[in-house]
Design goal:
The chain starts with a strand and ends with a strand. The protein has no helices and eleven strands. Strands 2, 4, 5, 6, 9, 10 and 11 form a seven-stranded mixed β-sheet that branches. A four-stranded antiparallel β-sheet has the order 1-3-8-7, with no helix packed on it. The chain is globular, with a radius of gyration of 13 Å. Strand 7 and strand 8 form a beta hairpin. By secondary structure, it is mainly β.
């Protein structure tokens, strides 16, 4: 019964900030890579950021310098700090776990329900 629950999405203006959280349960959290992905209406799922068990991160070029991924292993929680948001960041954001350190969605097995991020210009 793996469960991933995202929170923290919302509607903001361009250049604003949001902090997303994902609380994991039902598996050995520290044995998995954790990632954030996003999907806009009519578009494919896109990798945003992935982090391993000790904090090494991979970020998509589109978010480098603006987003930071982190994890608190004691709390089984994953975070995504999003700064300087732009309209092109508008999407449903998903938390996922996987066994490979990479941004490809097919490397990840279990997914949360998503949290909506909407950025207006």
């Amino acid at each position: 019964q793996v469960q991933l629950v995202e929170s923290g999405g919302g509607s903001v203006q361009a250049e604003g900030s949001l902090r997303l959280s994902c609380v994991a349960s039902g598996f050995t959290y520290n044995n998995y890579y954790m990632g954030w992905f996003r999907q806009a209406p009519g578009k494919g799922r896109e990798g945003v950021a992935v982090i391993d068990s000790v904090g090494e991160a991979i970020l998509a070029d589109a978010v480098k310098g603006r987003f930071t991924i982190s994890r608190d292993n004691a709390k089984n929680t994953l975070y995504l700090q999003m700064n300087n948001l732009a309209p092109e960041d508008t999407a449903m954001y998903f938390c996922a776990d996987g066994r490979v350190h990479g941004l490809r969605p097919d490397h990840f097995t279990y997914w949360g329900q998503g949290t909506q991020v909407s950025v207006s210009s």
